[in-house]
């Protein structure tokens, strides 16, 4: 292997990226050393098993990835702004849309959602932790190092370039000879296994660790959505694991599962990919539905309308999500019968989704609606997502999809679903739970500015794509000629994308502004909210609840506030058992990273060494005797006194 | 909240305006044959149905947001506890079910319709054209006429055309928006598209499935001519164009971009398409010995020609077409 095969060379943009990566890394190292924060970082964050901190690390990583994916998006939009533009060449554009899609779905949307559930779920069900705290840390570091591995491809060896769906035979060694798609299979594999473990962890947490009296039908809607989401993860992710393993064998060990020759089946990849891929979009959207439900009921000061049908509709969506995957390749020539079946199952999802929309609208009825920043995102979601939903029904009709498939119409549709759904959802959640995480609120005025820029920018950026699609513009085209007439609408879309980007910049500036100026000591319940997490002080002590709450109804905290009934029993504190921190999950992540990186370049000796390392780590863990530690009753009393004494 | 209402009415008005102008401007809604016409009608019908849904949601939404804002209620107003309503919830479950049922019927009927020779043209013998993609161009073979073109295809008007699609590389998708929707071209099997052009004219055709570096340039012209002009063109090609030799075909496959080409013979003889026993996908049971019995198939030669393709091995994956 030559140097210039290893390092991506000859691209000014990549040199700039090299320089900035080196500078940022240096700045971090120097900063940490200068302020003597290495120990703090290691003790408090890298080795933590506290679900709240793990959640915050997920969210920070997701925000960074949002920016990486966002810069990709702006580059693409700039390239498409005018006909015959020369900013990006074909190869570069192909790499960028591939990593944009991958990063946004797998390393932004998913971890953001998982971060939200890490922060909130134990608090919302009245638990002191997740079921397997150490496993939770392993999940995070697997995701993190998977994401790093994919990002490394940009400067070392070249990014994947066969689209985020990586269809074969295009993604095979024959047509994609660079290591780009090796990165694809390994980075996704590592983080995917992490996600699968999260799935198991949260199912057990929600089923086994609810506070006394919290029956299933008393759970807040976000908890319900997370439970259902994790069941989907449990069924969908093994398919991805298998598909990626076969891909890795094809690309690295020369097997022929998906190749053109020797009976390889290209469409088998498409089937496996979408059997996972379609449920995946529900994995990122159902928790957002849960967040919107909690936010809407909090800020209209009402209980959620049609609680039962909300739960039933989510279960229905989760079942249907596994029965629709073939709508991604109606055009494979599978015949009218099969296409008809998948059309109907796909359109059927509109029914439970519609039920949810109407229940949200009726939650507002007779309410007392205040337009705080989380509520704005929830209210922005409804009309925009409905456009995404109805265009989804249009796409579901097979005969019509023959005309939309692989066009900008599709690109418009899925952004109309993913951005108001998932992105607005996690942003609503982030603004909403921010005081739980950090003890202060984000500045409302800046938040509103960001919101309106995002809403306006979004529609200007994506509405034109519907018309471009109907006018014959395909997706993944790095350039087009002036004679196509695609120019003007693309220019409008690009302007919209930049407005959207400014919105995100304002949103992030808000962190710094609020960190310095937001009032502290607003108490544990700044929004006058309804669910258990708001009954704890902010920020939340490590043990979450000094005493476990006694749940007597839905919206237990609201009930307690309104009827003046105690949520916690009287009496002295008892000591609490906590899991101890551990460096092992982080180290395991590093070893996984080395394993993945070695395999990308087919360096088998380091790969074997790293593989042995993984086994050793697992063995060490199974022989370890660590029973955690106890927080004494006295210490709890002191903490509670300090936290509640001057705040409540 | 004024801003929001203003924004949404703007979006809505622009949709309506753009749609009313569609007939003349957007390719997909400007069909030049019965298949695309069916699809265009389906699309417009679904837009109208969905506009209905949107209007209901938007009216409810605006009503709720304007009526129940905190700023409009008194400080001591306590919102009531509302569990939900069986009847209302039933209504907004049943009405969508009815809508979906209607759309399902339309979908199944139109999907069947576009998979067949269009109505009214069943009695004519379709013109068969093999359309094969390779990086990054299209090869069109007319087996009956004995001619082949690259990167352009001429068809007669008012006669059914049966495109048989396959690929010498990554999956591509054959699409002529004004004649009808697309279908995949894959290396191991043939897919079919039935088009009829009922207008003369030149239509844009392209590959719409990402297939690598040269994908964006993978466009071709589809020219619909009167039957007389078409026959004349065929005769012309037969008389003036060179024959397509195996060597020449190999060169074509290996060259990323070339302009238009015409030949007075096809590649189907020496590089048969993945059809019948040649197909990688066996529909029902494996039949590796059928290769041995069908002696005339120049299997070895084909492997030579296509370099990387080996179709002797049969997979068992079912497509059910
Ligand atoms: C923030 C503003 C965003 C902009 C301006 C944007 C823009 C784009 C553009 C221009 C493309 C490529 C179109 C093409 O050439 O085919 C694209 C593709 C895509 N985007 Fe976005 N996007 C944004 C956010 C997102 C988000 C939040 C997600 C997911 C949560 C997402 C998921 C995707 C996916 C999956 C693809 C397809 C990638 C592929 O074709 O392989 N995007 N986006
Ligand atoms: Cu899908
Ligand atoms: Cu096939």
UniProtKB/TrEMBL annotation, chain A:
Its cofactor is ferriheme a; Cu cation. One of its GO terms (cellular component) is plasma membrane. Pathway: Energy metabolism; oxidative phosphorylation. It catalyses: 2 a quinol + O2 = 2 a quinone + 2 H2O; 4 Fe(II)-[cytochrome c] + O2 + 8 H(+)(in) = 4 Fe(III)-[cytochrome c] + 2 H2O + 4 H(+)(out). GO terms for biological process: aerobic respiration; electron transport coupled proton transport; respiratory electron transport chain. InterPro entries: Cyt_c_oxase-like_su1_dom, Cyt_c_oxase-like_su1_sf, Cyt_C_Oxase_1, Cyt_c_Oxase_su1_BS, Cyt_c_oxidase_su1_bac, QoxB. PROSITE patterns: COX1, COX1_CUB. It comes from Paenibacillus azoreducens. This is Cytochrome c oxidase subunit 1.
Automatic annotation (TrEMBL), chain B:
Residues 300-310 have a biased composition (Low complexity). GO terms for biological process: ATP synthesis coupled electron transport. InterPro entries: CcO_II, CcO_II-like_C, Cupredoxin, CuRO_UO_II, Cyt_c_oxidase_su2_TM_dom, Cyt_c_oxidase_su2_TM_sf, Cyt_o_ubiquinol_oxidase_su2, QoxA. SUPFAM superfamilies: Cupredoxins, Cytochrome c oxidase subunit II-like, transmembrane region. Residues 124-236 form the Cytochrome oxidase subunit II copper A binding domain. GO terms for molecular function: copper ion binding; cytochrome bo3 ubiquinol oxidase activity; cytochrome-c oxidase activity; oxidoreductase activity, acting on diphenols and related substances as donors, oxygen as acceptor. The chain crosses the membrane at residues 43-66, 87-108. It catalyses: 2 a quinol + O2 = 2 a quinone + 2 H2O. It is found in: Cell membrane. Residues 289-299, 311-321 have a biased composition (Basic and acidic residues). Belongs to the cytochrome c oxidase subunit 2 family. This is Quinol oxidase subunit 2. It comes from Paenibacillus azoreducens.
